[in-house]
Structures are given as structure tokens and as C-alpha cells.
Amino acid sequence: ELYKRIEDQLAEAKVTDKDEMESVLIHGRAQIFEIEELKIRLAERLIEVQRDVDASKREEMASINKVKNFEDDIREALNEHKVEAGPLMKKVLESSKFRFIALCATNMKGNEVMGGASGGVGMCATACEKNIIVFWMKNGKQRRVFTGDDEGRHLGDPEGHTALVSALHFTGSRVYSGGMDSRIFVWDTSETSLNRAITGERWNLTEDERRGAMGRPLMLLEGHEASVTAIQVDTLKVVSGGADCKVILWSRATGIKLRILHGHQRSVLCLDIGPTWIVSGGQESEARIWHLPDEADPSQVMGNDKKTKVALDALKRNRDIKTRKKLASGDGFELEAGPGLTVAKFGALELIGGLADGHVVVWWLQDGKILQKVKAHQGPVHDLQFDATRIVSAGGDGLVVVTDITTGELMQQLRGHEGPVLALMFDTEKILSAGVDNTLRQWLWAQESDRGKVSDKFHVYDAGDTLVSIARQYGVSLPEVIRWNAIEDVRKVFPGTRLIVQPGNPDEPTGPEKALAKRQASKRRRNQDALQQSKASKAGAAKDMSILEKLKAREAESDRMNFRKNPLETAPEPRKYLAELRYVDKSTFSSRIAKKIEPSALDIDATRVRREKSDPNKIGRLTALGGRVAKAIIETIDPFGEVAERRKKAEQDKLAAQEKAEKDE
């Protein structure tokens, strides 16, 4: 439209015979230009607008293409979701048994195994044949499916395991899976990338976020020559063990193989890692503790690229990684030959291990002696965790067993799973266990009355966070975050604030919601009390005002009576004149006051007084004069408005009489 207006005005300028012409198209306001200058300005403006129009058309086409791509992505995502959440997949899952289950190791940092603490993850990963399935722990609903692949099905590297999954590890937002195809895949379960892809921001994702949102692996690690049987991860490295008797260290960031640790004579079955150590357990019933160089401590290199490079270089050097301890038969650690060390956990003073024959063993690291050896299960020990007083183990017999770490006494056997228990984790409130029967169970340390209670999941608000970004990160809506946390002013959400991002019981109000409701109820009560007090105060004030008005009316009436009795003493104006004229004689005072008010008011009386002054018997006339002076003062000063009121009433009566007379006529 602007382009057409400029064209029309330019054509008009070319044919007009005027010397000047007004235009609003150059600077947006009315201006007068000479014709030749206007032609030049309009031509330049036409070129500028044409350029803007072309740019707008290009942006429009780009937007149309983005919308089409977005629609394609939505269609693809819906198809994938339909397959993953459809009846066929549900039927397959119902009839399938999980071979491996991984609970998120990150949850242990927050002492909340259900992922309710800040930075926690409320999901668990499972392996079913070649597929990785991720579930919400709070409700058991399926969240993601990372499907396997077939050899030769397409060009390039496989997009999933081509054989059964044989190892699984879950930390942060990433799942690490090892398979019988000798490969390790890294998968992204991040809510942020998936939600952004679903909401149409896919073109703004990084390559890793895009692959994670599409359910494709972020990384492929190849180096084992047989099945991968164990995986452990920290912030610097990935450590894997396999049936090829090797322990391999990889860079977590790049996936580059750092080095291979040799020593086991049979398959490596379990791993545990720390800042400067690695524990590996093998099929030969042997445990090895490997010492890592101090500069490879992940806690010392976080966020420092130079130190990270130094740490990775240290891990590559063969001479810097040595076996500090070897726990095997003949070295003071008598283990039966054959069962295999299926799980090992490292402590500051002891090593706790679980064997394939159901034994739980405690070694004292200082001298290598066995402190306790307990037959806890009738099948292999699949997982265990311990603290200062107890060991909790999961076995192939379907039991979760609590053992006293000092005496070796079996304190409790928890029954409920209908098959082998594959994974467990505990905090100060509960034990979380997952089994082949496709169930996740909570065993509370607390009282029976608290059974079944799920904690809220929190996020600690940090610098750079926004409520919108937090809502996207956890897959919830912004109004839900505001409601759960009873946020009345977003400007008062400061770094360090704990925000609920997932209520433990969605059917009940959260703690902040209850507190807000309590504050609002208290505020309503205070408002009602204040309203009642205000009403009572107004009633009291009205009563006081009524009394005050009565007192004022009484005082006014008293003043009127006093004035009538002695106007020369009580009226303010006469007293003022008295002070000015310095007269004390009332008769003279009356005359002077009268003349001060109206010089001719008492001329007649003054003449009469002069005539009668020689007669002493006529003195009484002076008193009469004083009365008449008082009357004149009252009518002139009118301190209470009585004279004016009488005059007004007299005028009204006169007008009324005239109107009546006119009507009668």
C-alpha cells in the first residue's frame, strides 16, 4: 500500500505544473518540497520501500518453510508417539521382561532416590532385548523408547543396538547402554530438547539436542571385542568392562578411547569408580582396585579446559594407573572359585561385594581381611548399597535384604517382587527397588502411617534461570509452576529459591499452596475484624458528634441570652470599640459606639439628650438611650444572624402575601 501511494505521488509530481508540493511519504509527516527535490526524494523512497518489500517476502517464505518443517516434525513425532504409546507397544511390554534396570545415580547426591531433590531425575531406564525404555517413576508411564537397529539395514553406523543389551547405566540426563554387539551407545533423555522439539523450536536445537529429541544416540563407543557387561560414568570419563576381560576408559565429552586396563583373566562383571580409583570385579572371583593419578580427579578440573586436558592425558599414560589391590584367592581374600563377583561397592575403609552364589562379603581394605561373609540370597546378588550401619542388597531370589554391616546379622527381608530384583537405591527415608516383574517398589524406613507418600521434586532457582525455562526443562506449564509454588510476584523469586517442579501428590495442594490459602484466610479475617471495628468506631464517633453538637447548641443559646441581657459587655465588636475609644461610661460609650457604627443613627436621641441634660430628673433617658443603642448594635452587628433571618422571613412573608393577593385578584 505504501509502495502504491509513493508511485501515485511520484506520477503526480511529474505532470504537475506547481513549483511546490506537500508530502507525508518522505519523513512520515506533512512537509512542503520543491517539485524537483520531491521527485528525487520519492524515487529514493520508492527504492527503499521496494527493498523492504523484497526482504519481507523472503522472510515470509522462510516462515512458511519453517511452518511446513514444523508440521512435518509434529507429524513425525505424533507417529513415533503413537507407536511408542500404542496398544502394540504396551502389549509387547506387558509380555516382555526387563533384563536390566538402571536407577539414576544423580539422585543419590540429593538424598532423594525418587528424584525429588534439586537436579534429580524422576525417571528410570530399562533394557528389553535391543531396546531402551525410559519410564516416569512417579506413575510408571512410559516416557521414551530408544529402539535397536539391524546390521546392514542402512548406510553408516547403526542407530541402536543390533544385539541384546547387556549393561545399563543412568546418570544425569543420559543413559549409557552396552550390548552383546560390543558397542556402547549414549542416549539423551533431556526434557528440554524433547519439549523444544515438540513445541516447534527444533530448528534452534544443537545437533546433540536434535538427535536426542529424535530418539537417536548421541555417541557410539566402539573398542570392546565381546559383550559389554558393566558401565560406570563420572563427569570426566566413561569406564566400561566387557567379556573380553578388558576395562576401557573413554572421554565422556568426546567418546575418545583413553586407554585399556588389562589384568582380569575372565569376564569383567562389575565396576565402581571414584575420583582417583576404579574397582573392577570379574568372573574369576577377583576384585581389582586401580589407582588413578591425582590430577585426574574430576572435581579438580570442572570448567577448566586446561586442567581437563591434563587429566585426560594422565589417564592415557600407562605408568600412572596401577593396581593398588587385588582381592583374590591366595592373597588373604578367600573366595570360592567360580561364582563370580557380580557387584562391588567401594568405601573409605572397606569394600563390599556381592557374589553370584548369594554371598555378601565385607573386606577391610587396610589389611585385606574378610570382616563379614553372609549368605544373604539364594541367587546372585544383582545390586547393593551400604552406609555406616547396614547393607541393602537385591538378589535373584526376589528379595531385598538388609544386613548389619558390623555383625553380619540379617536384619530384614523385604518380600514383594515376583522375580529377580535387578536394581536398588536407598536414602534416609526409603529403599527403592526394581525387578524383572516390571515393578518399582518403595520400602519406607519411616512409620507405617507414612507409607506411599511421594516427595515433591524441587529445582533450586539459579542466576540465569527463568520460570519459563524451568517449566520447559521439567515438561510442565508455567501456570503450574506458579500455582505449585504460590508465586504472587515473579520479581521476588531470587537465586537459591527452591521451586516445586513436580508435586509428590498431584491430587493435593502443595505446601506453598496450603500456606498461601492460610495467609489469604488470615487476611480475610483481619479485614472483617477491621471492618467491624470501623463500623463500631463510626457509630461511636457519630454518638460523640451528637453530644458535641448538643453542647455547642447549648453554649450558643447561652451566648444569645447573655447578649440580649448585656450586649455592650458580651458582643465582641462593642468591646473592641470600647478598648479603642478608652471610654468606661456606659452612656457615653453607647453613643460613641452607635456613631462608630452609623454616624447618623442616634442624631434624634442625641438632640433630645442635649435638651433634657439640664434637668436632673431626665437622667433616665440616658438609660433609655443605652437600650436603644444596644438595639442598634444588635441590628447592625447581628453576631448570631438573627436579624438577617428575621429580615429574610419578613421578605418571604411579604412576597407570599403579594402572590396571594394576585391570585385572589
Which descriptor suits the 3D outline? flat
* SS elements, strand count: 31
Q: Helix count? A: 15
Helix content: 25-40%
Roughly how many Å apart are the termini?
81 Å
Q: Structural class per helix/strand content?
A: alpha+beta
Strand order of the largest sheet: 3-4-5-6
- Rounded mean pLDDT is 78
Poorly predicted parts: 329-337, 573-587, 616-623
Q: Which range does the strand content fall in?
A: 25-35%
Task: Please outline the major beta sheet.
Answer: 4 strands, antiparallel
Radius of gyration (CA) equals: 50 Å
Protein described:
With 665 residues, this protein is an alpha+beta fold. Helices cover 37% and strands 25% of the residues. The strands form nine sheets. Strands 3-4-5-6 form a four-stranded antiparallel beta sheet, with no helix packed on it. The protein has a four-stranded antiparallel beta sheet with strand order 7-8-9-10. The chain has a four-stranded antiparallel beta sheet with strand order 11-12-13-14, covered by helices on one side. A hairpin with a 3-residue loop joins strand 23 and strand 24 (390-395). The longest helix is centred in the last third of the chain and has 55 residues, at 511-565.
Topology of helices and strands:
Layout: H1 2-15, E1 20-23, E2 31-34, H2 35-85, H3 87-95, E3 100-103, E4 123-128, E5 131-136, E6 142-146, E7 165-171, E8 174-179, E9 183-188, H4 191-198, H5 207-213, E10 219-222, E11 228-233, E12 237-242, E13 247-251, E14 257-261, E15 268-273, E16 277-282, E17 287-291, H6 305-316, E18 322-327, E19 341-346, E20 350-355, E21 359-364, E22 370-375, E23 381-386, E24 390-395, E25 400-404, E26 410-414, E27 421-426, E28 430-435, E29 440-444, E30 457-460, H7 467-473, H8 478-484, E31 498-502, H9 511-565, H10 567-570, H11 572-581, H12 586-597, H13 603-612, H14 620-637, H15 642-664
Antiparallel strand pairs: 1-2, 3-4, 4-5, 5-6, 7-8, 8-9, 9-10, 11-12, 12-13, 13-14, 15-16, 16-17, 17-18, 19-20, 20-21, 21-22, 23-24, 24-25, 25-26, 27-28, 28-29, 30-31
